[in-house]
Amino acid sequence: EDLPCTLADLRAAYADGITPRAVMTALLARLADIDDPGIFIHLEVAQTLLAQADALGAFDPARPLWGVPFAVKDNIDVAGMPTSAGCEAFTRYPQTDAFAVARLREAGAIPIGKTNLDQFATGLVGTRTPHPVPRNALDPAIVPGGSSSGSAVVVAHGVVPFALGTDTAGSGRVPAALNGIVGLKPTLGAVSAGGVVPACRTLDTISVFARNVEDAHAVCAVMAGYDAADAYARPLRMAPPPAPLPAPRIAVPDHASLRFFGDSLQAESFSATLETLRRRGAEITPIDFGPFHDVAQMLYDGAWVAERYSVIAELMESEPEAIHPVTREVIGKARGMSALDAFRGIYRLAELRRHCVQLMADFDYLVVPSIPRFYSCADLAADPITPNSNLGTYTNFVNLLDLCALTVPVAPREDGRPGSVTLIGRAGADGRLATEASRLTRAVAGIAAPAMPAEPADDEMAIAVCG
Amino acid sequence: EDLPCTLADLRAAYADGITPRAVMTALLARLADIDDPGIFIHLEVAQTLLAQADALGAFDPARPLWGVPFAVKDNIDVAGMPTSAGCEAFTRYPQTDAFAVARLREAGAIPIGKTNLDQFATGLVGTRTPHPVPRNALDPAIVPGGSSSGSAVVVAHGVVPFALGTDTAGSGRVPAALNGIVGLKPTLGAVSAGGVVPACRTLDTISVFARNVEDAHAVCAVMAGYDAADAYARPLRMAPPPAPLPAPRIAVPDHASLRFFGDSLQAESFSATLETLRRRGAEITPIDFGPFHDVAQMLYDGAWVAERYSVIAELMESEPEAIHPVTREVIGKARGMSALDAFRGIYRLAELRRHCVQLMADFDYLVVPSIPRFYSCADLAADPITPNSNLGTYTNFVNLLDLCALTVPVAPREDGRPGSVTLIGRAGADGRLATEASRLTRAVAGIAAPAMPAEPADDEMAIAVCG
User: Do A298 and A307 meet the contact criterion of CB atoms below 8 Å apart?
Assistant: First the structure.
């Protein structure tokens, strides 16, 4: 039976009298059909999930996420489920939900389990896990993307309308691009980090995977809320998206700055999307992306890797074999780094940030390819480092520069692989990005299916049909 | 002959027909009388100064600092004068003024020389210099304070109406307190750091010494201005001071948090100042200062000392004997610090900052003793570290917490030593502090000299009579 995979569809189904128990049952059947042991590290037992579904009682439209099942990356606490961050020796058993999960539960949502990830959220590929690698939902030959691999895949399969990831280098965007869904990386500090295993504590945020922009933004709006107990929280609100800009001024990487590592179809896909934007009134300006690339480079080559080390230093010294060998190699580099290196990196970032801010000053937002190219699982087996680094080309700089980002699917490429671009805005511009990204997905849908009816009016929501 | 030592007096003198040449001549005579070889590391030759005075031409009241001589701490560039930061081997010969100095010069001010300092602005005592130690302007037995020792002393002597210092740990406040003058430490980033030798680049600011609050604020307003070339500049304006608060809500360290290291007169002086504030309508609330003390502790014990090391690492490794032995010992600690230490310190600071922000939330500003006690030059000769640390008790946390501060003289203590308190406000509250500090100095003056006429109306400026 059909499983509604957008919030609007699910809500409509509940209003029509379908029960959460029925949805939960269908969801578990769908998961069994998919038969991918790599998606969940911990799936709640069916009996408990059905009991939680029943406990919701009668449909309560006042609760914005009433009866919405969701999946949670296994570096975010859910009360009663283990949190391992993909490392058994690291496992903790939280008695309380992460701050953001608690807010979602309060709104009526039901966490169904903890998803697989690149261990300690360190990676963009999804293959750096001691568990089976989740299969990419669209093409099992290509990597699922990471680090939020399981969360992206389970949403791409239409099992749940949304799932939580985290995003430091691009872990909430790269897997969205590889699985053809939406990935929303909010402004740093908008969503509490309470109950989240840090990767780089100064650069982390919870992120959302969903089937459309509206759902991702709505979920984020429910999660967001100032948490005084989180030293990195900021008093930001996820304001309702504003009206679209009639002629958005968009900056894109200029020809010399674009990097596709030989994937010409990806270059064509990006050009086609810019053409769509232009046709819809956008002013597109190519800019030198050199400083953004320089910032991206700093995330793993610079002292910030010491932030990752700070999370696992004790474990790494006492029980190194408990850590995935690639993760150990990547994070182990922090051992040789001095406080001098750290501050020199901080200074260099401040200077590059100033430069990037100036480059962005005349524009409403940036649009970049979400990923420069695709990589297969075989590519990663042959070289676990280089493809991972390349995948972060258009994502790694975003949190270092305190920007927000929204990854959206666009028309599939000629070879059928998912097209994707990412909109990037200034801190706090989450609502603006949602409006613009939503308009882009409508425009792209219009091109991909020219027989479709006219563009919906502004007060309608564009609903992807799936499932 | 009399040398006007406030901007208003000097301006009035110029309006009356006195020439900059006459002022410059009197100033040089005064300096000769003081006969302290420790104040200046480099004093411009008289001929040049007189020529610059003459070059100003006719009095131009449109230039806010027309004909105002000032001194510059020797870690700030003045074109044509060497910058040594108190270390001969480090000396550079800048061809251009520091950004802030250029703005002052544009307003008509004339830099007369470069003042002595604790080498590399590392210290709060003024004794950590290879040059003669500047004599405290009020009592040669006590230390002049640092690191901006020469700048504070020269203003306290009435030689110039203002001088520039820098402030990282308290270098713009401690020497103001020890010499009985005003020390203004603006919000970080309000004044460009362009052309300044860094101490801790993330925590440094230029500061101003003056005889009254109005002068300090006016000078700061001229210097402030966004410098896009300084990665740590912020687009703040030194707004004109607002109207005074009728009943300011002031937080002060509670009894258990106050530290005077045995100096009971300092405790009495602080109590008397609070009593004055209370009588003028302030609501004084003692708060737990523990988290502020914890932050203060981090500045030299934590990884931030690696910022100082980053400035002199090459020199320290190649030519260690070129560096003052105490400075070398203090900064050398950075060699053993890792990037892990740096990020753990950054996290701890973020948590303490959150705590401190919450403690300050219900108050307009803080008032603290500027220094906990006095130390003699003999004390420093016996132990060059502990007295220095203690002097930072009420200053070290301010830049780490991104606050602004204004140090003002209050009634002298029973033993004749200068009384001083410091007002501390949130980032950007520089104007608010100026208003409140100005009112406090008027109130204190009223108490110290009960025969004085009634408090001036709000639109009058309180002018200290001196020199």
Answer: no
